[in-house]
Write a structure and sequence with these properties.
Layout: H1 9-12, H2 15-22, H3 26-52, H4 61-89, H5 91-95, H6 98-119, H7 136-159
Helix pairs in contact: 2-4, 3-4, 3-7, 6-7
Length: 162
């Protein structure tokens, strides 16, 4: 076997990388777990964002947040290991792919937006928990979140064609 080159050649040459490339079914199965995890995560985020934007005002924001946060965190158990496994198959290709780097950047931006929301406007959620509109700042976070996650999904799909 020829040694893999590039800064991440060690990962490409690892047994995980070799297995991910060499097995007919491994990569597609792992990709399915990654996509299912993303569907759960993004579905949860979108449901929460739509609630903050004003849909289903009879559902308390806090109750919906607690419920969906659990699913979001559980989805990471699928997304992260599957993403690492897929990355190990062609790490040098991924790390030099601008779409992949954009996807990672957008994920960081979505995380910062969520942290900013929870550290800021969400602290006053008692005043807009049920029956009233969320403040403009909360709606801005929710709208930005929707845009970011749609862009992240788009980047994920574009990776297959770049």
């Amino acid at each position: 076997m020829q040694a893999a080159a590039g800064p991440l050649g060690w990962l490409e040459a690892s047994s995980l990388g070799v297995t991910m490339r060499g097995s007919l079914w491994m990569y597609p199965i792992v990709e399915i777990f990654h996509i299912v995890g993303f569907a759960i995560l993004v579905g949860s985020v979108i449901m929460f964002d739509l609630r903050v934007l004003g849909l289903s005002k009879e559902v308390p924001v806090t109750a919906m947040g607690r419920h969906l946060l659990r699913w979001s965190l559980l989805s990471l158990l699928l997304i992260i290991p599957a993403g690492v496994m897929m990355f190990s198959a062609h790490p040098n290709d991924f790390i030099s792919n601008k779409i992949f780097l954009l996807k990672l950047t957008l994920i960081v931006c979505a995380g910062v937006n969520a942290l900013s929301f929870h550290a800021g406007v969400y602290r006053g959620v008692v005043g807009w928990n049920t029956g009233v509109s969320a403040p403009a700042a909360a709606k801005c976070h929710a709208g930005l979140s929707l845009v970011l996650w749609i862009a992240i999904i788009s980047c994920g799909r574009l990776l297959a064609y770049t």
